[in-house]
Amino acid sequence: MNKQYSFVANSSVMFFICGLAILVVLVQAAIFFRAAWKEAIRIGFTKADLLKVVKSSTVFSIVPSLPIIISYMILLPALGKYFPWLRLSVIGSATYETMAANMAVTSYGFSSLGSADFSPDVFGSIMWVVTLGVFLSSMSALVLKKYDKKMQSITTNKESFGALVPNIMFLGMMATLAAPYLVDVKNVVSLSTIAVSAVVMVLMDRMSKRWKQLKEFAFSISMISGMAMACLVTSLIK
């Protein structure tokens, strides 16, 4: 990582800016939690019931959060300590962040996000690209209700083509993201990582039918398995 870029990405100013944004989100969460607690008491729930819900929700939120931690570790070497923390704490995912950041970096002539030794102005461009890319999601409050009604009307008939539309859209999006790695037959690391992750995910899915507790761990274990395979293949190639 370029020294100037590293200084900016890991500076106290960046920590303050990112921390301030996350603080706003935490305050919003606290406000909604307080309102939900009051409403639950009003409709007849006891404090003991609510504390049980809070405890169980806290425990069951830890495992689904593991992929987020792994995603942070993936983005940390390229984007510094604080910006990935902000992105994954507020809104974002490793897939989107990596894709958008790569697009910004390659537009400057670099080969990829991982290999680029870029300057602070390129880092600033990355921040703008990944942030503006999700900016329109704030408009969902205006259009999501109408969209949801339309989707419900389309998917009401389970035997119609409309019922398949959401799944088709999701699979199309995933295919678009995965295609560059699948067609690059010379990239042994990517292909082996995808293959191992897919096999582990299928195995975990089958095992979770017998042991329900494994379902929450499936995605995390498949990611870790893929990362381990990538490290193994990389070391063998070198």
UniProtKB/TrEMBL annotation:
Transmembrane segments: 12-37, 58-79, 122-144, 164-182, 188-205, 217-237
Pfam families reported for this sequence: DUF5058
Domain of life: Bacteria
Keywords: Membrane, Transmembrane, Transmembrane helix
Organism (species): Blautia producta
Record keyword Zinc-finger present: no
Full protein name: DUF5058 family protein
Family annotation (InterPro entries): DUF5058
